[in-house]
Amino acid sequence: MATPDIASRRLAAGALAAGFADLRPPLAPNEARIAAERCLFCFDAPCVTACPTSIDIPLFVRQIATANVEGAARTILDSNILGGMCARVCPTETLCEQACVRAAEERPIEIGRLQRHATDRLMESGIQPYRQGPSTGRSVAVVGAGPAGLACAHALAVAGHAVTIYEARPKLGGLNEYGIAAYKTVDGFAQREVAFVLGVGGINVVHGRRLGAGLTIDELAATHDAVFLAVGLDTVNRLGIEDALDGVVDGVSLIADIRQASDLAAIPIGRRVVVIGGGMTAIDVASQARRLGAEEVTIAYRRAAAQMGASPYEQRLAQTDGVLIRTGVVPRRVIAEGGRVVALEVERPATGERLTLPCDQLFRAIGQAIVADEVAPLAIVSGRIVVDEERRTSRPGVWAGGDCVAGGDDLTVTAVEDGKRAAASIDRALREASGG
Amino acid sequence: MADLATTFAGIRSPNPFWLASAPPTDKAYNVERAFQAGWGGVVWKTLGEDPPVVNVSGPRYGAIHASDRRVIGFNNIELITDRPLQVNLDEIRAVKARWPDRAVVVSLMVPCEEPCWAGILRLVEETGADGVELNFGCPHGMSERGMGAAVGQVPEYVEMVVRWCKTHTRLPVIAKLTPNVTDIRKPAEAALRGGADAVSLINTINSIMGVDLDAMAPSPHTDGLGTHGGYCGAAVRPIALHMTAEIARSPETAGLPISAIGGIESWRDAAEFIALGAGTVQVCTAAMVYGFRIVEEMISGLSGFLDDRRYGSVAAMVGLATPKVTDWNRLNLDYAVKARINQDLCISCGRCHIACEDTSHQAITSAVDGVRRFEVIESECVGCNLCALVCPIADCITMEPLAVGVIDARTGRPVGSGNTWKDRA
Ligand SMILES: Cc1cc2nc3c(=O)[nH]c(=O)nc-3n(C[C@H](O)[C@H](O)[C@H](O)COP(=O)(O)O)c2cc1C
Q1: Contacts of B362 in chain A (CB under 8 A)
Q2: What is the count of structural domains for chain A?
Q3: How many helices (H) and strands (E) would you count in chain B?
Q4: Interface confidence (ipTM) of the complex
Q5: Which terminus of chain B has fewer CB atoms gathered within 10 Å of its CB, N or C?
Q6: What is the CA A10 to chain-centroid distance, rounded?
């Protein structure tokens, strides 16, 4: 019987450190100025339209070019309080930078890196540009401290509402802290950004409270004037085939383990790894598995490359890391020996051909869902909460945003926009209710 | 390859590219390197009387940068040479002996007294130099001592000093003019009256390059205090072109040889000055920014151009554009152009629209049938050129002349020829 090869310390310390260093290092000041001076300051700029949070990109880039870097950061953060993280993780090549008029001509303005330049500088300066607004006497519960929750809480605090964040996990930040590949946000940036957001004041954090585990929407509604749900997605979708075997792992847990590890070398990884899925989680698992030292990593995706949730840039990144992306293959059977996975059998539906992909570890990355009972009795569609334009749920007084709502595209930046819109709607509702 | 050899006011050089009197020509070491690189001539850094002046030891230079930190404007508060006269004379003699085919002109600035000029001219003649350039231009440091621009700004002084010099030397005399005057023709006429063989222009323009907002002082500054310096570099080229054309086309000074200076960086810049009437060109800032090798591009570019156009020599193209410089009131007001946007080249940045919309004639759309698209509205377009200038893509927006007889959609008048403001009045 083959013993599965799962081991820690596959790589020398230097190689490991290099693999988990900053993926896109920050721009040096001179590089930033040169990059900024290329911006054409377009009329009705297409990049702004392409940004889910509508950051005034030409303005902030011009501010960088004129050595007003703090002003640039203010421009960014006024539209997107998590502009620092978005600068690191946004798929800019399919958003602002794709819309850039210079993309057609040669190469687009490096908006993401410029945004990081400005926000990093502001955060390093220690300046706190935001202050809690004059108290309205109203209180709002925000459930979940991921990008949507933090953005909503911040905007509400600026508007003068008392905010209580309920967070189930030990650290705030949601997927920024637990769900993003380590080399995209190095040096504890997620926690520094959380501290910056909370620095506005007026946001109270209650740890260890999870919706569905003692905390209910009814209770929150009774103790607050409004409720914003930003609980993310809880459960990992099952394959529907021999899920319970040893060696079959949730991709999101590997990502979280890597982010929380004090010693990356201690994380065990298979020699041969197969990842099922086609989104960002699949890419982050596959690339990081390679960077931990897995020798063979294959992504098995059921449809075509163009339909993958991961952008072409992300796909290329994984391929450069040595990941083999197999498209058009449907998982049919997990092959096990002695209760442990040894291979995945996939089929090419077009031809009926079957392939066996040997593996020591098999990662599931085929999406997540919400635990429906936790958010009952809200209207739900395909495992997500239904909301309107203003992010109102079917229950008055309850708003929702981020990955837990239907219709989004599971990006940090869209979660921030959800939080922003919900906060504006909540603020309006509370002011109307008090006749003010 | 066309022969670039030039004879200017009797001074011969293998090409018309000279280095202007400034740091690049400060001493034998630099000039040797310049000649090795291919420069046709130099005007030696201005000599004065002993004891030599003392320069500031703080920053002497300031600059205006375009994107990518390209230096487009430059300024200095440097004085004339700060080395003993005899050292310079010895070096000039040695360099001229080693490079007989190159032009070595010596720039001079001494107090406004005839014996001073007579004395130094005799010494310069002994070096074997090809000519002298009288520095009537430095706008700082020397002018406060009654020299440089202080002379150049008073036509009577210019005439007087030139006359002294013509009396005391057999060498060609070039009067270097200051642009810090209202009408450049006046000092040029004065130089001609005094007997000058040529004029050179422009020297530098009075300027403050910036303000250091931390020190609350001009930048650069010397120990907290700043003063105006002389402005030069690419940014001054339009001013120099204008002054060159004014002298070339004025009946009083037409035919007076001009050595043009001011913002010349490339063969094309040089060709433009030559077309407006310059016989040679002089370069300072571009050499200070890029080094002497730029002359290779200048030589190959200009000879390629002369070949292309079959002009055969530099002299053949001197002043070809001069007759096309005229006064506003001779312009044809019934001529009309319309902007045209090449939609295949357009990247839809919208700069043309917002420039026209906010500041001009509301003649460019931002959307057509609800779709982002920039098109010229001919009935509003006055042909001003703003859109073409702000467009980031070369040749995407062109100004297309309307044929004679066509009705201009904006004015309703037919396009005609030769109707000036007087005809239209
Ligand atoms: C640092 C510096 C020093 C200069 N010194 C002199 C000088 O001693 N005598 C002189 O006639 N012109 C002097 N000039 C003026 C130049 O010869 C030239 O007229 C002017 O810089 C314009 O040319 P450009 O745009 O190519 O620099 C100096 C210019 C600079 C930048």
Answers
A1: none
A2: 3
A3: 14, 20
A4: 0.82
A5: C
A6: 28
